[in-house]
């Protein structure tokens, strides 16, 4: 192969760059399709706005006195509230250090037909001083009596 | 008094930085030697003033001066001295001061190692660094004064976040910032070259060691952060694709592209505009990373909106630096020129392909990091982009780059015949294929993903060995040491870094493929078998620590009924904040780690620590290879800059154009 002329060479590389970008865009769209996790408040879940059969996140406060540990297993039941609606959550596994009654929490999982939420992951990546931002905004939205705007499935793709 | 002295030193530093930014640049434009000569003393004076200010803050932390707001919010008299000093950069204000100190330190280093630089270039480089420093000093003095007083003084401090009370966190931020800020040197060289309109191989040779050192620091800083996450966050992961991590990873990817592109610019004079663009991009992403982590925008875009002073300042600063340098690039890049031509299959083309892949991968990380922020800021809803997104986009993009890494070092510059490459690499290729087919089966499970990872890892290691073998074979027979000595240290640095990538890929593949994670409830006396090891939970004992109360568990790990190790994971409650923290216990081994961390009491009565506990028991094969590989990459970078040709006075405009393998070293 002979060295290409600079102009042809530049065009070839721009083409290669565009091709790589195209592949990346394809990968990104494909990954977005299945891996974006949307966020809903307990009020929205109670109003059946959350999707069924697809994982999403729910945020709010762990209701005081609601945490029940099943004997002889790692299963924990608690309720997440935005002070307007309350959603029962079941989680099997180890809870993060910062999980407490009366504190903010974000859980990822899916909702069953009876409205209960089965969490695969409980997140509390925050310190004692503030709420997880999503939990805080869920409470704020419920207090204002407005529904938080949330992307529905099918939008934003 | 001491904090006021520190504050005053910062104000003086700002004035000196203004002079450093303006006068030498003016001198270079008007060809005035006295003005240009100001650059060096000004940079040194500024560095001393900032270092003095930093010392004042550290002094206040060490002496528990709770009349300083920053100290009262981030330290505590119970905190051991080394963590009190580390707390200096544990806060927003302190970490900005550290950033500025690093910048001043890099400027100081430039004044020391610049005897061979033309004075116009040196004046412009130090001016640009002075400009950046003006931005950061203004930011600190206007919005984030680390010396702000608290009236009345607090009796006791609020404590450093317990997560940061760890040796890894003492060293992680300084190393990371060394890398971030080090890219400012590459950036300043690029902008200086754009202003001067002269960009040649000598320029690349000057800016190359600076870039490589910065990249090496960043590499090791990221490795430390990842290792810290593994043993302190208590869930045994090593990378979470968290925005804070991505913020440091994007400059790293761009920096990796930059050091490769600089190699082409130095050796062949090609890719000039591209190199300059990458230098601008790498530093811009460092600034973006600082903005993301420091403005509070990640915690909540609304927190940013309600206290906008800091965020708006960084945003404006970012716009000025990025916009200004890109505008300069658009205006002047034509002068810089493109450089030589090369064939479709050549070392240049492979390095360019590697560059494209790295930058596209960086863009996909950028998208995944910023997309949720944009949607939230525009009020379009809340969502998160999780690790599966990054995994499914990043790995396919990096696989071809990893493949090219094996071929590139053996390919000739300008034109690399494919038959010759095939002849050289067929053994490495065969070894990689055979390993990919057989190794996973020996380890217990064959999947396409594991096989693919093993293929790439073995391919890289085998091709590094082959590259070295070809080098030695071309030397006179029998004189192995002499043959080894003829190669430059930058050549060995490159091989070492590539070897590191191979080991890193092996670690990632094997830990992802064969790790076993068990979350389980154990009564004292219970035993469980995980990954061929028996873990027996003996029980827990309470005990005090210097500034916390702890509960220490005891686990006996047995293999074939023989005691291998006793692991003692801890659960701590910190006195000052009441925050709980899990300290995992890890039995580290070359072939893998045994990892135990305590959950919480799970007995019949709540809070009874003598009963059952929930625990995590993980077996992580080859996980330490991940950090070993990354450390090798960083060490490779340091080895590369020890090359003596960087210390020689370069001949301006000399480009070695010989396409032979010998000159293709780096």
Q: Would you summarize the structure shown here?
A:
With 157 residues, chain A is α+β, with helices and mostly antiparallel strands. Chain A is built from three helices and seven strands, in the order H-E-H-E-E-E-E-E-E-H.
Shape of chain B: globular
Uncertain runs of chain B: 650-666
**Assembly of the depicted chains:** heterodimer
- Percent of residues in β-strands of chain A: 25-35%
Q: Radius of gyration of chain B in whole Å, from Cα? A: 27 Å
Low-confidence stretches of chain A: 146-157
Distance between the termini of chain B: 53 Å
Number of strands of chain A: 7
Instruction: Kindly estimate the percentage of residues of chain B that lie in beta strands according to DSSP.
Output: 5-15%
Which class do the helix and strand fractions of chain A yield? alpha+beta
Give the helix tally of chain B.
20
Name the helicity range of chain B: 55-70%
Interface with most residues: A-B, 50 and 56 residues
- What shape does the CA trace of chain A take? elongated
For the sheet with most strands of chain A, the description reads: 5 strands, mixed, barrel
Structural class, from secondary structure content of chain B? alpha+beta
Termini Cα gap of chain A: 43 Å
């Amino acid at each position: 192969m002979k060295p290409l002329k600079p102009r042809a060479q530049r065009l070839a590389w721009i083409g290669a760059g565009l091709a790589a970008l195209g592949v990346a865009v394809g990968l990104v769209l494909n990954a977005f399709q299945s891996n974006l996790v949307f966020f809903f408040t307990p009020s929205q879940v109670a109003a059946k706005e959350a999707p069924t059969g697809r994982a999403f996140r729910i945020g709010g406060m762990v209701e005081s006195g609601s945490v029940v540990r099943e004997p002889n297993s790692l299963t924990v039941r608690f309720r997440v509230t935005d002070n307007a609606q309350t959603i029962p959550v079941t989680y099997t596994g180890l809870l993060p250090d910062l999980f407490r009654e009366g504190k903010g929490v974000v859980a990822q999982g899916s909702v069953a037909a009876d409205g209960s939420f089965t969490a695969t992951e409980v997140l509390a990546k925050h310190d004692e001083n503030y709420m997880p931002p999503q939990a805080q905004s869920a409470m704020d939205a419920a207090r204002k009596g407005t529904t938080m705007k949330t992307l529905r499935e099918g939008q934003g793709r | 008094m001491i904090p006021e002295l520190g504050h005053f030193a910062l104000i003086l530093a700002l004035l000196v930085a203004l002079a450093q930014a303006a006068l030498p640049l003016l001198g270079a434009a008007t060809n005035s030697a006295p003005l240009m000569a100001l650059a060096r003393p000004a940079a040194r004076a500024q560095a001393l003033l900032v270092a003095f200010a930093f010392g004042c803050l550290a002094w206040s932390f060490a002496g528990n001066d709770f009349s300083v707001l920053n100290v009262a919010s981030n330290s505590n008299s119970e905190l051991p001295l080394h963590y009190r000093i580390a707390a200096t950069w544990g806060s927003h204000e302190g970490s900005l001061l550290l950033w500025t100190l690093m910048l001043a330190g890099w400027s100081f280093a430039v004044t020391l190692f610049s005897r061979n630089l033309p004075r116009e270039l040196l004046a412009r480089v130090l001016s640009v660094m002075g400009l950046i420093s003006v931005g950061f000093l203004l930011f600190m003095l206007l919005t984030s004064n680390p010396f702000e007083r608290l009236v009345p003084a607090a009796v006791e401090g609020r404590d450093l976040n317990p997560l940061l009370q760890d040796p890894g966190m003492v060293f992680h931020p300084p190393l990371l910032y060394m890398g971030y800020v080090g890219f400012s040197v590459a950036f300043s060289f690029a902008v200086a070259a754009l202003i001067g309109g002269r960009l040649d191989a000598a320029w690349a040779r000057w800016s190359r060691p600076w870039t490589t050192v910065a990249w090496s620091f960043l590499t090791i800083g990221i490795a430390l952060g990842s290792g810290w996450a593994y043993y302190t966050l208590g869930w045994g992961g090593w990378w979470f694709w968290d925005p804070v991590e991505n913020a440091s990873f994007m400059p790293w990817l761009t920096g990796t592209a930059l050091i490769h592109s600089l190699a082409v610019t130095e050796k062949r004079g090609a890719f000039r505009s591209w190199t300059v663009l990458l230098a601008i991009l790498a530093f811009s992403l460092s600034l973006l990373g600082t903005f993301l982590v420091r403005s509070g925008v990640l915690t909540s875009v609304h927190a940013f909106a309600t206290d906008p002073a800091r965020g708006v300042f960084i945003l404006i600063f970012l716009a000025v630096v990025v916009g200004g340098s890109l505008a300069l690039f658009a205006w002047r890049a034509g002068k810089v020129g493109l450089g030589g031509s090369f064939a479709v299959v050549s070392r240049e083309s492979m390095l360019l392909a590697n560059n494209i892949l790295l930058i596209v991968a960086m863009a996909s990380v950028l998208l995944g990091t910023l997309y949720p922020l944009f949607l939230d800021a525009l009020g379009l809803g809340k969502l998160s982009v999780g690790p599966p997104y990054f995994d499914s986009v990043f790995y396919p993009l990096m696989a071809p780059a990893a493949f090219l890494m094996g071929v590139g070092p053996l390919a000739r510059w300008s034109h690399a015949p494919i038959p010759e490459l095939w002849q050289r690499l067929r053994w490495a290729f065969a070894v990689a294929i055979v390993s990919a087919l057989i190794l996973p089966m020996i380890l217990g499970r064959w999947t396409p993903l594991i096989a693919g990872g093993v293929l790439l890892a073995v391919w890289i290691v085998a091709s590094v060995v082959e590259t070295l073998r070809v080098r030695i074979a071309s030397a006179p027979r029998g004189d192995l040491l002499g043959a080894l000595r003829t190669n430059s240290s930058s050549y060995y640095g490159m091989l070492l870094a590539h070897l590191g990538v191979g080991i890193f890929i092996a670690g990632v593949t094997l830990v992802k493929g064969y790790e076993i994670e068990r979350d389980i409830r154990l009564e004292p006396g219970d035993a469980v078998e995980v990954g061929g090891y028996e873990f027996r939970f003996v029980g827990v004992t309470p005990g005090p620590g210097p500034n916390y109360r702890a509960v220490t568990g005891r686990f006996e790990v047995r293999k074939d009924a023989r005691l291998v190790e006793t692991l003692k994971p801890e659960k701590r409650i910190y006195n000052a904040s009441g925050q709980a923290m899990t300290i995992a216990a890890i039995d580290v081994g070359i072939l893998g780690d045994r990892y135990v961390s305590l959950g919480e009491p799970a007995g019949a009565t709540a809070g009874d620590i003598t009963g059952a506990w929930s625990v995590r028991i993980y077996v992580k094969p080859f996980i330490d290879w991940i950090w070993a590989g990354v450390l090798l990459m960083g060490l490779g970078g340091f080895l590369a800059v020890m090359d003596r040709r960087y210390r020689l006075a370069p001949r301006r405009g000399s480009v070695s154009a010989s396409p032979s393998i010998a000159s293709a070293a780096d």
